[in-house]
Amino acid sequence: MTSEFHTHERDTAPAVASPLRLPSGITLPNRLVKAAMEEQLAGRGGHPDDRLVTLYRTWDRGGVGMMLTGHVMVDRSAVAQPANIILDATSDLAPFREWAAAAETSSFWMQINHPGRVVRRDTGSRALAPSTVPVDAGRFSTLFPTPVPMTASDIEDTVERFAVTAELAEQAGFAGVEIHAAHGYLLAQFLSPLVNKRTDQWGGGLRNRARLLLDVVAAVRGRVRPGFGIAVKLNSADFQRGGFDLDDAHHVIEWLGDSVDFVELSGGSVESLATAGHPADGRTLEREAYFLKLAGQLVADSSVPLMLTGGIRRAQVAEEVIARGFSLVGVATALAQQPDGPLGWLAGEDGEVTAPCSALRTKSLRAAAIQASITLRLHDLSRGRSGRTLAPVAALVVDQYRRSRAIRRHRQERSA
Ligand SMILES: Cc1cc2nc3c(=O)[nH]c(=O)nc-3n(C[C@H](O)[C@H](O)[C@H](O)COP(=O)(O)O)c2cc1C
Are 28 and 66 in contact (CB under 8 A)? Predict the structure, then answer.
């Protein structure tokens, strides 16, 4: 055990096992949250089916106190990937009800998102953004079309879409929604001074750049019942020179204030890949929960409960995240690897989970290979299988084949 870890008496219950009452009145049975992972498992029309029910039932039985879905698209003309789940006014709610019912013990929330300019050309999506600044994803940049700056009516329409999706999520039986304003998607694009070059009320100073996010939160609040949960996922920093930074995050959290149940802190984007390729090669707290040092600076002043996500693979690190003042611990990769890991963590076992890693030199390729390997595991789990452990490069090949089939189906559906 390294000296930077707080020690806990063996006979005291782990801090992650304590319940948490959120401002909306929802009580979570413990502090472990299955963080959002895009499943790419939508059936026809962007609807969920049995595979997602199986996947989330598995996580629910694995002990987490809360589950967040992978990002669900609010606009079917703008999808991040071809098999993304879409929930809009034209969706059939019955399969969403079945999906929501997969949770028996955990609180099940839907993450809702608009990808903005981060849409792949081959999806035929409209690349809307605050300004015409294209995505700079190195050798992958050409995959993304040049974005179209949003008009005032595009902005109004988008706010309304978030509200409609949240309202439908509530009707389907989800306990809350998490609004995705991290990782370089539309709401993060507005927050970033590098992407948002507008000179109207949605651009310029931070207050203006945060307007879209705050309007979305207010519109959602206005549309759902008071006990329905609302959270925001926000970057603690974009990790780009001149981009959204810690100080900005501090202000945005303050403005979100009591209109949200919690803020989940993450970091990076498709341009900076801050969540990718963090081999836990040094077992020190900061290398493992890699946003802890940065995001930890937001804890003292925040009146909003905070959740930290990124690199958490074992109980001792999760405990330390709570010890540093975070209310919730977000876990993604480790739950794809071992969906019942939390049962051990809650029982006081360290239960370290091994994450996939790759020796590929190019960071973007390495990130894509690891992402593919995790996606493949989600797909195996969704079919009731225990999950293959393919080398990330092999997983990338399998995933490319899967994606090309999904693209074909997506195009057929769009043209029908
Ligand atoms: C396959 C995969 C899909 C992801 N999809 C989403 C998503 O839909 N929404 C989101 O906010 N984050 C998404 N993430 C990021 C995770 O929620 C999390 O922030 C990140 O993986 C770091 O946490 P971890 O180290 O526990 O995996 C995804 C991560 C992976 C690996």
Answer: yes
